[in-house]
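Archive entry. Fields below.
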Amino acid sequence: MTTVLQQLRQLLDFLHEHEWSRTRETSRFFVYSPPASMLGDGGFELVVPRDPLASDFERSLESTLDAVASFYGMPFSSLEALMLPASEVVSLRLEGEQYHGGAAPFSQFERMLEHFKRTITRTAAFVLTDDPAAQATPKAARRYLDDCWFMQTARGSFISRVALPIAGTFGPELSLFTRPIKREAVADTIQQVSLLVGSRVLERDETLFTEDGFGAVRSIASVGVLEEVSRLLRGTEARRVSFEFNRKGTQRDVVLPPLTAARLQNLDHFINYVREQVRATFTLSVSGRVFEVRRSRRTSSSSIVGVLADVDNRQQLVTFKVGARDLGVFLDRFASRAPITVQGRARRLRTQIRIEADLSYDASESTNVEPEGH
Amino acid sequence: MPLPESAAKELLSRGYLRLVAGQAGFIPGVDELDFGVDIQLRHVDCIEEHGRSKFRASGFMIDVQLKATCERDAQFVDGHVLYDLDSTAFNDLVRRTSSPHTIPIILGLLVLPDIPDEWLSLDESALLLRRCTYVWRPSPDDVLTQNTATKRIRIPLASRLELGTFESIRQEYLS
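PREDICTED_STRUCTURE:
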């Protein structure tokens, strides 16, 4: 959660970085002049409250933030995003009778906050596990939530804002083989999911229920994330919900259509479809090169092997677990870079294909076999 | 009169303040939650950008609490206007002013003639609102009152709301 002192620090840093100059300090305020290129003859003075013990410090700081936002002609949330360059500010705007005047009934606020948090955690879990059907939440996903900042609620219709970290990557132990997972993938996924739900799912776009249509959105279709979004929309009991994503001053709005019972049913229908699709297995037989071999867990005797293979006319990572008995074969292949054929019952994840059952391999030949149908 | 007298007085006090604030470089506004504040005034300053003048908020605010009364309900004694302010409002003002703060709060007391027909007149040449608004701020000597109903305040007659009033307060707070 952002404290007012953090906000003050960020504002002062922002002014410094944007070449504002502090012209004087009074007992109550720091007084700033704009950059010389913008000053002209106007003699504009920006006041920044400096006494955090003042009873109205928070309101006063908010007024200054408003003034800076107005100075640059940008929405308040854009300014916050500029002040938090390592974050994406996600605003959730709720509209409806009960949210009129910028207040929210406590029970709805509580539900909204809980499901907003869980949406973030579920999305982080989806990004980290790569598994759209997984229910488990890795510790790293919970830690990601700890790094998010719940921000001041804006005026107007009821708005909650969270700053999601986008800089850096998740730890190397969480990387998908040699590809580290960027933290911005969480914010990207939330944005893409809200766009998918708002523009297609709630409107029951039938093309989503075709093989090609679903294939195009598979990388963002997670049962856990969609379920939380559904709970979030229902829990608020809002008539309208919109998301605003602001990264480094660039804002994208995703306005959902009015939340009618029929539209929410469309969402349920899609979630059921996603559940079927992401759990579906198919027989896979491919030939490729061993990309990496790693221990599945520190305490486990099994290892995870990644094979880079041509599936559906593109290079994809096929992963599977092997025991100590078979590990040597894959280590040899990894060292020699010779191809190997693997087969089994597989399931498509967010970015990879995982063989989950009936694994067999053939190290004696290097034929390339197309996967069978789903 | 189309409105109850008290409502008409309140609207006139707001209108009076808005007109003066607008002329003095402050934008009047009302927050969703008033916290004892009837009108917030946001200071705007001029900046030149690419040779064009633009007006932007400077971040400085003044909170205003408004009251309206008639001459018969106020007393004019020894160069002061005496007014019985309700105790809650008095204590709010004292509490705000006596603790460290950055947003000044003032009381604006509009005193109107006793006869409602004389309050406002307008024609092609002028809009005339009779009498004036007095401005009061607690002094360091003022302490919270135990009175349950009202607390009498004394406002110097010279403390009238004028075009320079808000800017004087701003300068005081920026010094």
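CURATOR_NOTE: Chain B is about 25% helix and 40% strand.
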